[in-house]
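Journal club side-thread
Mid-discussion, someone asked how the predicted structure for our own chain would compare to the paper's figures. Pasting it here so we can look after the session.
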Amino acid sequence: MTAARHAAGQAASAAAWAVLTVAAMLTGYALVCLAIGWRPTVVTSGSMSPALRVGDVVVFAPATDRPPTKGMIVLFQRPGSQQQLAHRVVAVRPDGLVTKGDANAVPDSGLVAPDSIRGQARLVLPRVGVLRLLGTAHWHTGLRWLTLLAVAGALALLTGRGHRGGRFPTASDA
């Protein structure tokens, strides 16, 4: 095996271990968040750009933690709708909250009642949710990341150690 191919195999192996380590850490973190009542949500629109991008995962703490204040990103549900929105609080009034997407020119229509708040943003995991978008209108974003992962996996297999020259390595190859 050439030195360049050996180095490429080592790099691919290190990258694979790094990806597995990060995946295990994110899984552990997700389980802890769920255990304490926090909930992850994948961003599916650009209304909060640039703070939140399509494909980001936002982890929301329960709304009972503390009352929302100006500048907080909250997850809420409009009356009569199943859709949940994550927008920034731009004003707090006695009768409700005024919210607005960062990328929107004007505030949302109507006030958000305090009892419709589902959570307050605590953590953003950039691009973690892109594969979740494959079944949505933003499928192209997920497809790009899936393609990138497939290419990385293929490169790791092609440059990895273990199977070369049509035979499996033996003890004398070491």
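Post-session note: The chain has a mean pLDDT of 78.
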